[in-house]
Amino acid sequence: MDSIELAFAGAAEQARLLASGAVTAPALTDLYLDRIARLDPELRSYRVVFAEQARRAAAEAQERLDAGERLPLLGVPIAIKDDSDVAGTPTTYGSTAHGPAPTKDAEVVRLLREAGAIILGKTAVPEMMIWPFTETISYGATHNPWDISRTPGGSSGGSGAAVAAGLAPMALGSDGAGSIRIPASWCGLFGLKPQRGRVPLAPHDDAWNGMVVNGPLTHTVEDAALFLDVTCDKQMPGPEGGFVRAASRPPNRLRIALTTKLPPGVTGRVSPGHRAAVHQAGQVLRELGHDVVERDIDYPPTSMFTQLLPRYIRGVYDDVRVLPHQERLDSRTRGVARIGRMFSDARIAKIRAAEQEFSARVLSIFDDVDVVITPGTATGPSKIGAYRRLGAVSTLSLVAARVPFQIAFNATGQPAAVVPWGLDSSGLPLSIQLVGRPFDEATLLSLSAEIEADRPWAHRRPSVS
Known about the structure:
Elements: H1 3-7, H2 11-20, H3 25-43, E1 46-49, H4 51-66, E2 77-81, H5 107-114, E3 118-123, E4 135-136, E5 140-141, H6 157-164, E6 170-175, H7 181-187, E7 190-193, H8 207-210, E8 213-218, H9 221-231, H10 243-248, E9 255-258, H11 272-287, E10 291-294, H12 303-320, H13 331-341, H14 345-353, H15 355-363, E11 371-375, H16 392-402, H17 407-412, E12 416-423, E13 429-436, H18 441-454
Parallel strand pairs: 2-3, 9-10, 9-11
Antiparallel strand pairs: 1-3, 4-5, 6-8, 7-8, 7-12, 11-13, 12-13
Protein name: amidase
Pfam family, one: Amidase
EC number: 3.5.1.4
């Protein structure tokens, strides 16, 4: 296996190669550090790289491998989004307004280290994780490896760009309104938003009023399943035998609904390529033996303004108000926070109390189907700098039109995954989103793996790779 193939092999395959002795942990880590040094000055996917720490951890991992120790990710490098704490380095949230470095790892980082993973560095985010584009005053713009004039998405934009370019085999992301699924869509990756509470958020529990979850961006479905097995809350309901086993089993005959209808409150349109991807997926799934129908989700007509945006925007305010140097924030970030401050504690409590009613209406489609498929996004990624001179409200309106299919499922808490689906007429990745029943990541993983086997995507390489 040459170095390019190894860099794109994926975390699960690399774990097997390390366990068999076909590759060593120091060699694998050096491969990524060398690639980061060569390619990341153009992409800016990493905010900081832990080169010496990673090399020390790789040497220790190799000693454990040589001694016969076996852990799920022993010696496998991974990138961490810069909203999760890594002890000893600041969690910047894409800004210089942050406080001192944490003294403890976030719980999800602790679990990844416990499984043997080697932390390569922290990946770039938009300021306070607000936007589906990763551009900040403090750290500059992160570029999409498929087209460096465009964004990789956000807010896990650095994670998406790093994995897509072969600068990490897997990356931690977080998703409060699509922040895993959007960069996965625009970078040609598999991205999974798990069930709320599946992967720990501590010490940032209940972020954005229950909207945020942690999850992976990966090359393969198996990699995402492995991430879940390592990090999941073992007290929550899950598949017998674990998520990797669930991903390895073909799904039963499923009832699948297709929809390309925009949720109410969003002004925009779905591009022909993104619409076609959904209908092409429907045809493939019929050929694979599934029952496929066209059916729209019954979104409450005012939910964008009465349930979704208030929780998200108030969440931004909650994050901003604890920062020690708020004066350093971008004016647009301060604008979003000012809007969020208008939602009182009492009003947010009332909105959250209405979540069950909102969820019941959205979930009613699952009375008749097992999985719902939407476009991954409505259009492709924006150009770098497209929103540079706009204020908070204008930017919110414009970005919502590009990425309307994600945020509702952050409010319901149910799992959703993005599956790559070819390239558009400009050579940029297309995707579809698979939405599952609550707590049913297993079906999403199984169906995604079936699609992956029929229409492989991991062999595709962006221009910067």
